């Protein structure tokens, strides 16, 4: 006694071919490839290197010397309230600051309406010359 499991008539001896693709192995291979890609991608590091102080600075009663550089809305640069005529004069003043062993603090105060390239130029000059104690002040106007 035998049993016919196919469930068809005797005239249909050939079974119908399967017309749909088996997606499970394809999905498994794609998942493995995605995991391998994620593992092998190098870590992207978009950081800015800063020289941060180590430890607490000693307390002193002497107030630090502060030089204020204002950049007006039209690009005019003021050194402690005095107009600087051109970039060469600004760099000469920065050279004098950089030559001092204990550099004074330089506070850069840009106007809200000034073009960024003017402020970036002042900061680039300070960095190139070697002014290390420079900071932006008056940032509350940008909020």
Your description of this structure?
It is a single chain. The protein is α/β, with parallel strands linked by helices. The protein has a domain at 66-138: Nucleotidyltransferase, domain 5 (2-Layer Sandwich). It has three helices and five strands. The protein has helices spanning 24-40, 87-99, 116-129, and strands at residues 66-71, 77-79, 82-84, 105-110, 134-136. It has a five-stranded mixed sheet with strand order 3-2-1-4-5. Strand 1 (66-71) and strand 2 form a beta hairpin. 8% of the residues are buried. The model has no long low-confidence stretch (mean pLDDT 83).
Unreliable segments (pLDDT under 50, ≥5 consecutive)?
none
* Structure class: alpha/beta
- Proportion of residues in extended strands: 5-15%
Average of pLDDT: 83
Write down how many β-strands occur, each being a DSSP E stretch of 2 or more residues: 5
